[in-house]
Specification:
The structure holds two protein chains of two kinds.
Chain A (H helix, E strand, L loop, with lengths): L8 E4 L5 E6 L10 E6 L6 E4 L13 E6 L2 E6 L8 E9 L4 E4 L3 E5 L1
Parallel strand pairs in A: 1-9
Antiparallel strand pairs in A: 2-6, 3-4, 3-7, 5-6, 7-8, 7-9
Chain B lengths: L3 E4 L2 E3 L5 E7 L8 E7 L5 E7 L6 E3 L7 E6 L4 E6 L8 E13 L2 E5 L8 E5 L2
The chains are: A mainly beta, B mainly beta.
């Protein structure tokens, strides 16, 4: 079964650096690029990272993405209270012929 | 910036049908692949369907295949999702999103959902 696995929660204090991981398989992350999305409460998702490590215009360089093998990671440096949100990884899965989203990681800024 | 506005959600009984629409503001609508993503109450994101700009490539999640049909009208800058045989587990906020299609090592794929609408709520309940 093709799934992208994320830890349900993460936390950090203002100014800290946090990393959110996403684990997949050869049919998704191992072959195709990874996206990361942020969803603030009650709002639509926002694209944070595309092509594993590229930021769309307007996304601060505090956000960075990386990929190695069948895993990917989103790092947020200089953590701010407004970073408190749900974060999702996503990748195309060649076996399913569809987009897989991770289960999401709820980031709490303490 | 592209603005998207979904409409057509509402309350429908199990087994019923509903047609969602997504109106785009961009003149370059036909250059984007278009996508539907849903989110059940309190749950995560779930991809539903994607369609390339020229409608050559269409994919559906297994959970909706045979029940949902995606379509688009590039002249009217609109995307649609015809939903039939609705089930209670189809209850969700449905978002439309722009994206891009790519040719990869194993075929065509969709990625990079950059612009999203605010979503429209579909509730399937008796």
């Amino acid at each position: 079964q093709s799934v992208l696995t994320q830890s349900p929660s993460a936390s950090g204090t203002p100014g800290q650096r946090v990393a959110i991981s996403c684990s997949g398989s050869n049919s998704n992350i191992g072959t195709n690029p990874v996206n990361w999305y942020r969803q603030l409460p009650g709002t639509a998702p926002k694209l944070l990272i595309y092509s594993n490590n590229q930021r769309p215009s307007g996304v601060p360089d505090r956000f960075s993405g990386s990929k190695s093998g069948t895993s990917a990671s989103l790092a947020i440096s200089g953590l701010q209270s407004e970073d408190e949100a749900d974060y999702y990884c996503a990748a195309w899965d060649d076996s399913l012929n569809g987009v897989l989203f991770g289960g999401g990681t709820k980031l709490t800024v303490l | 910036e592209v603005q998207l506005l979904e409409s057509g959600g509402g309350l429908v009984k199990p087994g019923g049908s509903l047609r969602l629409s997504c109106a785009a503001s961009t003149l370059g609508f036909s250059t984007y692949s278009m996508n539907w993503v849903r989110q059940a109450p309190g749950k995560g994101l779930q991809w539903v369907s994607s369609m390339s700009g020229s409608s050559d490539y269409i994919f559906y999640a297994d959970s909706v295949k045979g029940r949902f049909t995606i379509s688009r009208d590039n002249a009217k800058k609109s995307l649609f999702l015809q939903m039939s045989s609705l089930r209670t587990d189809d209850t969700a906020i449905y978002y439309c999103a722009t994206g891009f299609g790519y040719s990869g090592a194993n075929g065509f794929y969709f990625q990079d959902f950059e612009y999203w609408g605010r979503g429209t709520l579909v509730t399937v309940s008796s």
